[in-house]
Amino acid sequence: MTVYHGKSVFGGIAIGPIQLYTKGEQEVKREKREDSEAEIKRYEEAKETAVEQLRKLYEKAVKEVGETNAAVFEVHQMMLADDDYIDSVLNIIRTQKVNAEYAVALTGDNFADMFASMEDEYMKERAADVRDISERLISILRGETGGAKTAHSPAIIVADDLVPSETVQLDKDKILAFVTVHGSTNSHTAILARTMGIPAMIGTNIPLADAIHGEMAVVDGFAGLIYVDPDEETLAKMKLRLEEEEEKKRLLQQLRGKENITKDGQKLRLYANIGNIKDLALVRKNDAGGIGLFRSEFIYLEADDYPSENEQFTIYRTVAETMAGKRVIIRTLDIGADKQAPYFQLPHEENPAMGMRAIRICLTREDIFKTQLRALFRASAYGRISIMYPMIISVNEVIRIREIADEVKRELQEEQVEYGEVEQGIMIETPAAVMMSEELAHYVDFFSIGTNDLTQYTLAIDRQNPALDDFYEPHHPAVLKMIQMVVENAHKAGIWAGICGELGADTSLTKEFLAMGVDELSVSPGRILPIRKIVLETDVGEYRRKNANK
Ligand code: PEP
Ligand code: MG
Question: Containing domain of residue 132, as a range?
Fold first, then answer.
């Protein structure tokens, strides 16, 4: 048994095999092989396996993301059958008397370079595809089971780090826990883990060696420990704890259907954060009163090109219909910073967190913004949709946004397309928005405080940089004072204010938020019932009295 340490980002116990998630960019060694025909046979067999894998991926993708987005897997199958590619591999194996892995890697590099140097944009993009198929072939030739994308049964994902575009590709039903070497507390992998309610740890000193792939392991997400090849005693102890955790979850489920009301009658709305329509099952299971943050950018991250109005409309309509009249707050795309979609072709920036992201892209590229707004307004005819705008810093931005939204509504009216009543609110996630909240409140229907970015910009601490985790003080008085200020300014103008950043889920602050008068907390679905429990146990008046002199 070997124990590795990391930092916990979500508690819980997981027991299962390790699935090593590799990026596929591994060095390929050139080895002499006299028996060329044997190498060719290995290559042919790997090619067949690759075609079979791609066929399955295509079928899965069609179901999950539609035919257009799944098409890439068909393109890859065709590339594997390309005569020029095959001739090149066979020629290298025969003439250089080398291993198939090396011949594939060399062919892959040569073809990718050739595509990349072409004028035609479409052909240029094929460079990434040819690299992808070559990596797939190499990993099959090496006898690897591949990245987590090919996991067949539930497993503990061990990776260096995962970026949002990688996490969206993972089959969520097959993930028992996340264990990463890098990553930070507020990275989107951590957020995904919290949404799914699965144990996760970051900054783990685990070696990413092939030897651990498939090993049995236990993750103790509370302590931030992973036991690889656990001894019998540890396994038995952890199985018991897993059962206890399950029991706690069952007890919490008894709070379903109860109102979020304190002992002295103060109400709080408890909503869920989601990034995908697949999360809707968790939303219902955990009895959310609505959706307080749908991170719509994940629709863009899952796609290879700008999602069309109709593709988006179908998704928003599904959410609205599933939530059956409950409030659904959809945030317009928050691409940029750590959430990169290559087809946006954003320029390289020294400091992307402070760069071209979110509403700044929408106000610069109105066509993209309008497409999303049209889809949102159209979907509002099918449920209670609210729109929320991220990364606001000024009143002028909000005025411009509302003008564009009005234009969209006018166009829909002219086309006689139906839409419903839509509340429009903003995220308060920059210090500028906090300081302007008194004025901003007159232009919007609600505020939702994004404490992840607000903390990053207030404390000048990059949320992606794990080296700063020790300085990242989520309960910093500056942030808490800002929340209080935003809530007061919202109420003065007669609008409501909630929190949709990770801090909203921090149960050690639930009483404090109630005392501040926060109207809504939007959290990962799995955090709703634990917060409800605290709300039901709280007497806000008594809490205020006790803390009056502190
Ligand atoms: C936030 O910044 O607090 C937030 C909710 O948005 P995101 O984490 O997606 O940036
Ligand atoms: Mg944010």
Answer: 36-141
